[in-house]
Amino acid sequence: MEKVREILLAHLERAYAPYSGFPVVALVEAEGEMFLGVNVENASFPLSQCAERNAVAAMVLAGKRRIDRVHVYSPRGPIPPCGGCRQVLFEFGGAGAEVVLHGPEGYRVHRLGELLPWGFRLGQKDP
């Protein structure tokens, strides 16, 4: 966990958060590989991109489709992913994927199903 935390901290400064002052970095562990993302804000705030979704996009670009674990770090944390990110993470990780929420004081571990109890994905009959 310490190695992942070092990676998160090393990439936090790459977040682009001039409007909110709320930088976030995410690391997705998928099929034995790691993928990073940072939040990228925009003056038209709805066009901003969350760190978690950017990490998932990098994962998909690399041809991976199954999330095992997600790490999210913010200096204001530990903070959970927003609702939209929870659903995107659920698409590739399901209820059992681990979500590790990091902050300056430490971290907390949850299952995605705890954070999004009624998430849904392709081919799923019941949540």
Automatic annotation (TrEMBL):
Pfam families linked to this entry: dCMP_cyt_deam_1
Cofactor(s) needed by this chain: Zn(2+)
GO BP terms, alphabetized: nucleobase-containing small molecule metabolic process; pyrimidine-containing compound metabolic process
Chain residues that bind Zn(2+): C50, C82, C85
PROSITE patterns reported for this sequence: CYT_DCMP_DEAMINASES_1, CYT_DCMP_DEAMINASES_2
SUPFAM superfamilies: Cytidine deaminase-like
Top-rank taxon, per record: Bacteria
E.C. number(s) listed in UniProt: 3.5.4.5
The keyword Transmembrane is assigned to this record: no
Cited InterPro entries: APOBEC/CMP_deaminase_Zn-bd, CMP_dCMP_dom, Cyt/Deoxycyt_deaminase, Cyt_deam_tetra, Cytidine_deaminase-like
Active-site residues annotated for this sequence: E52
Keywords: Hydrolase, Metal-binding, Zinc
Annotated catalysed reactions: cytidine + H2O + H(+) = uridine + NH4(+); 2'-deoxycytidine + H2O + H(+) = 2'-deoxyuridine + NH4(+)
Cellular component terms (Gene Ontology): cytosol
Molecular function per GO: cytidine deaminase activity; identical protein binding; zinc ion binding
Segments forming domain CMP/dCMP-type deaminase: 1-123
Similarity annotation: Belongs to the cytidine and deoxycytidylate deaminase family.
Protein's job: This enzyme scavenges exogenous and endogenous cytidine and 2'-deoxycytidine for UMP synthesis.
Cross-referenced NCBIfam families: cyt_deam_tetra (TIGR01354), PRK05578.1 (NF004064)
Protein name: Cytidine deaminase
Provenance organism: Thermus thermamylovorans
Source organism phylogeny: Bacteria, Thermotogati, Deinococcota, Deinococci, Thermales
